[in-house]
Amino acid sequence: MSMNRHIPLPVDVVSPSDRRVVEGILARLQRPGGVDEFTTQVRAVRGCRRPVRLAGRVTTSEPGGIPETRFDTRRLPDGVLLKACGSRRETVCPPCASLYRGDAFALVAAGLRGGKGVPETIGDHPAVLLTLTAPSFGAVHRRRPDGTCHPTGTRCEHGRALVCGHRHPESDPALGQALCPACYDYEGAVLFNAGVSELWRRTTIYAVRALGSLLDLSSRQASRQLRPSYVKVVEFQKRGSAHLHALVRVDRREDEHGAAPDGIDPDLLATALQMAARKVGAPVPGLTTGARHVWGTQIDTAIVAEAENGRARAAAYLAKYATKGTDEFGLLDHRLPAGICRDTRLPEHLRMLVATAWSLGDDEELVGIGLQRWSHTCGFRGHFLTKSRRWSTSFDELRSERQRWRLEKKGVTEDPAIEEIATTSEWTFEGSGYVTAGDACLARSVEEQLRAGRLLEREGQTGASAGGPAS
Question: Which residues contact residue 178 at a Cβ distance below 8 angstroms, ignoring those fewer than 6 apart?
């Protein structure tokens, strides 16, 4: 007798969440268009996990003519158009973050190798990868190069021994936590994050002066002849302090994308950046006491060369940080209505930084810098990826280029007569995300299919470029 008979499970065994998924999928099957039209919409937004739902129409009319409806969302499933959320954060929407990361790579790589409107001669310009860290605000659990944390130490004024004999693995939640929270300078850490952008701006100024000093030029001569171009990303360390990775390139001021400046090689640029980073300082934002911030002692420079595809690897290194947030769970990806995040997954050290930023926002001396608006980033005010104007192309141009490519693929071409046609768009916001758990499940399956397709395409391109068969 066969023992492989299928025995149906009782309804009570099915969890409520699974039941909602099944009910949502069944409801989608019964709606106009069914699953096929819905998944077509999801593919159009690349599997976005929280698309914006819009209702409306597009009408066109020629001078003196009758308006004609060109597009109406009532013909679509649920009567709405799905638009990708466009988030750059991996913890919010991985599909949109993947697209943003690809754009970030193209933007960074163009400033190192050329392309996207930048001549290939830019690859002859000296370039350096600069890493800058925050100073210490108190002892925290860490991983030193030899794997130890704090094998030796003293006892603080609160009676705690600032010693830890553990060898923390990379996934240890204790990493970044203060050995003595009472000793840790949370206010100093928040204000450093708030002023890190100004400290970086002054670093670029000092770098030009340092180059002038190494080339026997005055500060004025150096600023008239040389221009540093850069792209930088902010990475939050586990201790909640901003950490900068910047690709810095030197150009001739009168012809940024022309020949490389004379007398400057990557080693000279690295030396100048080290000199500038160790010398520069910036006022603590909001304070009038004369206190200044400086970079931490860990300052690293690495020469970026084309050998062994080094410039492409440097671009990929920076791009991967562009989609990261303040914490690994995405709990601080949005502004907070109050200075407390009650989710227990948030480490206590980060919670203290958030609460400190919120409380400092009530300080009359600091009210002008809006720390409460930036409590979710522990006081950091700014974008996670920024660049100088002349580094390369822009995100807007990359998006426009992608839009033009899509229109060309669909056979849509520019027609001078279209300029005389007036177009009117009427849209209503209907919400964001998927309405049912079933729709979210279907969208996730589309996302997996698209990811697998991109992976196979990438492997095929790699195999073709290597001269072997694509597997």
Answer: 138, 139, 140, 184, 239, 349
Long-range Cβ contact pairs of 14-21 (< 8 A, separation 24 or more) = 17/437, 20/436, 20/437, 20/438, 21/437, 21/438, 21/440, 21/441
Q: What's the full length of the chain, in residues? A: 471
pLDDT score recorded for residue 468: 46
Q: Which of 225, 257, 260, 258 is nearest to 126 (CA)?
A: 260
Q: What is the mean pLDDT of the chain?
A: 89
* Token pair of 230 as six digits: 């850069």
- Residue 106, beta-bridge partner list: none
3-class SS at 8?
coil
One-letter amino acid at 87 equals S
What six digits make up the tokens of 259? 């020949």
Listed by start position, the domains of the chain span 14-83+424-450, 94-137+185-393
What CA–CA distance (Å, rounded) separates 132 from 200? 9
- Residue type present at position 418: I
pTM for this entry: 0.86
Q: Which residues pair with 173 in a beta bridge?
A: none
Q: What number of helices (H) and strands (E) belong to the chain?
A: 10, 11
Nearest to 248 by CA among 272, 225, 224: 272
Burial (CB < 10 A; 0-12, 13-18, 19+), residue 308, is exposed
Residue 413 has pLDDT above 90, yes or no: no
Contact 85, 74 (CB under 8 A): no
Q: Select from 211, 369, 365, 206 the least CA-distant residue to 281.
A: 206
The residue whose two tokens read 């991983």 is: 143
